[in-house]
Known about the structure:
Blueprint: E1 7-10, H1 14-22, H2 33-36, E2 43-47, E3 50-54, E4 59-62, E5 65-66, E6 72-76, E7 80-83, H3 89-97, H4 123-137, E8 140-142, H5 146-153, H6 172-186, E9 214-225, E10 237-246, E11 251-254, E12 274-275, E13 279-281, H7 299-303
Parallel strand pairs: 4-9, 9-12
Antiparallel strand pairs: 1-2, 2-7, 3-6, 4-5, 7-13, 8-13, 9-10, 10-11
Amino acid sequence: MRAPAVKTLSRFTALALAAAFMAGCVQEGIRSAEEANDQDATELVILPAGQVKYYPPGEYLRNGFPVTPQQATDTLGGGLRMMKRQVSQAEYAACVAAKACKPLDRDHREDADPDLPAVGVSWRDATDYARWLSRETGHHYRLPTYAEWVYAAGAAYKEDVILDEFDPSDPAQRWLAEYALETQRKTTVDGTLRPFGGFGQNENGLQDMAGNVWDWTDTCSTRVNLDLVSGPAAGGSENCGVRVVAGPHRSYITDFIRDPKSGACSVGVPPSNLGFRLLRDEAGGVGPRTGSDPGTGSLREKLGIG
């Protein structure tokens, strides 16, 4: 995937803006009146319009056996705004203090470092935070879809699927390949948190996209029977009680789970840590971009098999 050119958008509080102006760091007229009055201090990266190709998450079956689906192509509109880094421990603690988010479990309840990502959070915790931040700032924040995360990740996104074709009459071949892939994943697990930027910054200006904190997405787990060409089940079924998490490899986690190593992972090696970063929708535009919206067509149409 070709890396798009991006620019970083920083929003400052009134105090920070005044301090920067007094220090000669802000040129008069460089910001609009709306930006100057904006109290949202969230640092965002803006990505231009583009297309992203990826292997869609979920379980795909043919003749009753798992297979790798065809690549999907999504078109994303311009102005996609994503948090430069993941939500910090201090930021999540502020939501808890405001009684808008639930306290984390005992191992992370006292976490409040502004330079470390909040971990031990569930999908429900992440969406509670997004609602709170939206109310506090007047902007609409949400979790990204899996396709949006892949697009933003750029070169940090690695295809973590089995691409080889196997004899459908011998499912053991694919099972062995899956076992080899899981073994490879186990060798890369490291749960030690690093300060923001400790795992580098990608070509889009986003930090730690290939780090050891997986990001929750808003994409539901799916199950598609590729043998069905018509009828109500042709587009597959969604289980939104299980969501896709994105990182060095993707995984599927029940939405209320905070510790991925507690046996909550639907399949495969669990992520090292669960955290999140949010998207901010433009004014007048809420929801995922073209191709990621379930209302734009069936799974079969998006996969080019309908």
